[in-house]
Amino acid sequence: AFDVLVVGGGPAGAAAAIYAARKGIRTGIAAERFGGQVLDTMAIENFISVQHTEGPKLVAQLESHVKDYDVDIMNLQRAEKLIPAKTEGGLHEVVLANGASLKARTVILSTGARWRQLGVPGEDAYRNKGVAYCPHCDGPLYKGKRVAVIGGGNSGVEAAIDLAGIVAHVTLIEYDSQLRADAVLQRKLASLPNVRIITSALTTEVLGDGEKVTGLAYKDRNSDELHQVELEGIFVQIGLVPNTEWLKDSVTLSRHGEVEVDHRGETSQRGIFAAGDCTTVPYKQIVIAMGEGSKAALSAFDYMIRLPMG
Ligand code: FAD
């Protein structure tokens, strides 16, 4: 059995594995796809102390850093079920899709999240070429340019306010007949001179020139008329979905499906910790996921050394 079993191999999981292994305890990491969302990222300019890097390069560095330690890396393994220990200090069990079962004294859940996609033509083709999902990450790349934000919930309106301070012009596109964000955010948005709000609009296509985004097409849901907006960037803000479907029977999740953790990263089950984008901790970012993963590993170690011997 492992002392610490990390499930998920993104920045949170990699940090957790390194911190655990450095304590000299038996550490394993099982991941469906080592690297996580970072693998899908091109430019990264907010990984503090590294001015510029790229997703695949950072993943290679994460992997080689983990491999410096005695960590059992189980890549391409999807966890399907978590069975918490029946008694304090007992073994937790993680069942994998291939039928195998891993046992561990403590578990760190770091299965991350995925951005909900529009599912329209052009979205896949122009991802990272104008189609973006993270305003904190990619906002500055659009300095002085025209962008759209798709989604009028809190995250969409926050993104539009944020981007309006950086880019030349923001078009906010909402499917519903009204925005769903908090009133205070809507008031702030309405006060900005370089923002246009379009409601009752169904985005139908991401337009591009073969190299990069040049606009988007939407249908006015009242008139059924098709319109186009010329722009350089599209921020899709229709929801971040945590990869926690497999955990709903074992730990407490928020109404958004995020694993609830306390300030030490512990879940509702003793000895089971969580970190990164799959948790209730706000702001889904690489440096934050790494910090939280490190914290969860230290908490797991702290928990272990207090267990009765035996
Ligand atoms: P993830 O990176 O999502 O990793 C989750 C891991 O869990 C993966 O290994 C996955 O395969 C695995 N997993 C999932 N389900 C299971 C399962 N059931 N069993 C086993 N393993 C499982 N952040 C920044 O700070 N700067 C940026 O510039 C930036 N740009 C971004 C660009 C894009 C396109 C995207 C999508 C995200 C970007 N982010 C950026 C956000 C950043 O990537 C995330 O905040 C960060 O990766 C979260 O780390 P994590 O370890 O919590 O989760």
UniProtKB/TrEMBL annotation:
- Record's GO cellular component, any one? cytosol
At the top level of its lineage, which domain of life is listed? Bacteria
Keyword line: Disulfide bond, FAD, Flavoprotein, NAD, NADP, Oxidoreductase, Redox-active center
**One GO MF term attached to the UniProt entry:** oxidoreductase activity, acting on a sulfur group of donors, NAD(P) as acceptor
Q: List the disulfide bonds.
A: C134-C137
Which residues are in the FAD/NAD(P)-binding domain?
Answer: 2-293
Q: How is the cofactor bound?
A: Binds 1 FAD per subunit.
Q: Which cofactor does it need?
A: FAD
GO biological process, alphabetically ordered: response to reactive oxygen species
Quaternary arrangement and interactors, per the entry? Homodimer.
Q: Which family does it belong to?
A: Belongs to the class-II pyridine nucleotide-disulfide oxidoreductase family.
What protein name applies here?
Answer: Thioredoxin reductase
